[in-house]
Amino acid sequence: MGLFKWFFVLLAFHLFTAAPAASSNPEELAQITLDFLNLAKEPELVDYMVNIRRRIHEYPELAFEEFETSKLIRTELDRLGIPYKHPVAITGVVGYVGTGRPPFVALRADMDALAIQEGREWEHKSKVPGKMHACGHDAHVAMLLGAAKILQEHCHDLQGTVVLVFQPAEEGGGGAKHIVDAGVLENVDAIFGIHVSPLYPIGTVASRSGPTLAGSGFFEAVISGKGGHAAIPQNTIDPVVAASNVIVSLQHLVSREADPLDSQVVTVAKFEGGGAFNAIPDSVTIGGTFRAFSKESLERLKKRIEEVITKQASVQRCTATVNFNPDKKTFYPVTVNNEDLHKHFLDVAADMLGSQNIIEKPLSMGAEDFAFYAEVIPGYFFSLGMKNSTLGSLASGHSPDYRLNEDVLPYGAALHVSLATRYLQNYRPESKSSYKISHDEL
Ligand SMILES: *[C@@H]1O[C@H](CO)[C@@H](O)[C@H](O)[C@H]1NC(C)=O
Ligand SMILES: [Zn+2]
Ligand SMILES: [Zn+2]
């Protein structure tokens, strides 16, 4: 290569890497971020989000059955003039705001409810018996539609495209995996996800860098013997005693085989067998979940759970089969927050809420299917506080008494908007290629 060519290569390299971190100065950025919160707190937008949230709350739909919720989302996107893809993963909707060109940054909301009967009487109580939004996914949809409205109003300022991901089946169905498999994240550079939390005060956020939520798996085992009269055990093969020994043996996987410094859980939560006081049943079904913070630990637990169940059952002359996808529940990987996105999040949250309102979230053995996104592209998942002591304490997620503090909605919408717009603004092509290089090297 001639000297002349080298000069251009070096010049190009210099221009690429020496570009300023952002076109706006820090005070301007902070002001824009605060402005987004004020916009989200405008009564008209709050009413819009509250209304959507209540409509979804009244008609909760379970995993992969979010047909009406999906229709509601599409109607709103149509009204806003936002193009979208549908169906993605059965009920999923993926909207696009901005230039339609790279860079692409995604924001995620989950749509599904739980098979729980709402316990509390109130004006917008679930109208579907046995189904309830008890995890706040109704609020997640409302916040992302609120964000969509703000983003669309500012679409000419966007320096790229915001991808709005409304996904099905977070609660055990692994909807995120289906979204990934549908190719929605191809060319997407980063993804953010919010979960409302009754643990943290309203106006605060909680998160951490690196592994943040455990990976999880589920198991169900049928332990079979031979039923008979409870007073003549010698003519039976008792699966109740065998299952009891299996459960005790499973407790040793964490206490005796795992590194005490590597957090893991094995819980048997389900035990079904027999019905009479004087009859030994033919079989017993047990089921539960296992959690860990690394792929290796999860795989080891899975292998050992199967071994312990089948071999321990055989000690009592029973046979056992183990199913790791009971009720269509799927394996969830560990949720890992990208380090660069953590820095980005800290900047945005400090400008919007003040750094004193950012909480370092402790590790949790809970799991989230957001992990599937963060496995394939840089991802970032955080908790958004909604506790307000003057309103009384809030029940935990998945409780029949779960209550959403609707004051949380503008915070979620504003954080979505700010995280995405500032991500696009700060985007540097070389940061993406460095992700690629490090991925290839690993
Ligand atoms: C907490 O609730 C009270 C009563 O509704 C309200 O006046 C106050 O603004 C709320 N606090 C926050 C931070 O939203
Ligand atoms: Zn949940
Ligand atoms: Zn949830």
What structural keywords apply?
Aminopeptidase; 12 helices; binds 2-acetamido-2-deoxy-beta-D-glucopyranose; eight-stranded mixed β-sheet; Alpha-Beta Plaits; disordered N terminus; alpha/beta; 442 residues; four-stranded antiparallel β-sheet; disordered C terminus; binds zinc ion
Topology, pairings included?
Elements: H1 3-17, H2 26-40, H3 43-58, H4 67-80, E1 84-88, E2 92-98, E3 104-110, H5 137-153, E4 161-167, H6 175-181, E5 188-201, E6 205-207, E7 210-213, E8 215-224, E9 228-229, H7 239-257, E10 264-273, E11 279-280, E12 283-292, H8 295-315, E13 319-323, E14 335-337, H9 339-353, E15 358-360, H10 371-376, E16 379-387, H11 409-426, H12 429-441
Parallel strand pairs: 3-4, 3-5, 5-16, 6-15
Antiparallel strand pairs: 1-2, 2-4, 6-16, 7-14, 8-12, 8-13, 9-11, 10-12
Determine the CATH topology of the largest domain: Aminopeptidase
List the domain count as a whole number: 2
Class of the largest domain in CATH? Alpha Beta
**Share of helix among residues?**
25-40%
Which cofactors or ions or other ligands sit in this model? 2-acetamido-2-deoxy-beta-D-glucopyranose, zinc ion
Rg from Cα? 25 Å
Q: Strand order across the biggest sheet?
A: 1-2-4-3-5-16-6-15
Query: What is the oligomeric state here?
Result: single chain
Would you list the SSEs in sequence order as H and E?
A: HHHHEEEHEHEEEEEHEEEHEEHEHEHH
**Fourth CATH level, the homologous superfamily of the largest domain:** Zn peptidases
Second-tier CATH architecture of the largest domain? 3-Layer(aba) Sandwich
Largest sheet: 8 strands, mixed
Which segments are poorly predicted (pLDDT under 50) over 5 or more consecutive residues?
1-22, 433-442
Distance from N terminus to C terminus (CA atoms, Å) equals: 31 Å
Mean pLDDT: 92
Tell me the strand percentage band.
15-25%
Note the total helix count.
Answer: 12
Number of E-state strands: 16
Specify the structural class: alpha/beta
Which overall shape is indicated by the principal axes computed on the Cα atoms? elongated
